Amino acid sequence: MSKEPRTPAEWQEAVDLAEGFLLIESARSYGLITGGPKVDVARCEEILVAGRRRGVRPRSAAAEQLARMLAKG
Q1: Contact 37, 21 (CB under 8 A)
Q2: pLDDT tens for the chain, residues 1 to 73
Q3: Cα atoms in the 13 Å half-sphere on the side-chain side of 68
């Protein structure tokens, strides 16, 4: 069972993370990276759609921040 974001800040974080994880999965599918976390693509897409309905869009710097965070381990 997934915890649904409730506040605007939670929605922003969820949308940012969903976008970042989809970028990671895309890079993996093109062979640009190997390893990394398992990505639930369908759930990420659901979060992005639900976020858009609420007027929440991914911040451009969020994906870069996620990548740096994962690279540090």
Answers
A1: yes
A2: 468 899 999 999 999 999 999 988 998 899 988 888 899 999 999 999 999 999 999 998 877 777 777 777 6
A3: 5
Q: Quote the Cα angle for 71-51-41, to 5°.
A: 50
> For residues 42 and 1, what is the distance between their CA atoms, to the nearest angstrom?
14
Domain extent listing, the chain: 8-72
The tokens for 33 are 């990276």
- Of 71, 73, 59, the closest CA to residue 20 belongs to 59
pTM to 2 decimals? Answer: 0.83
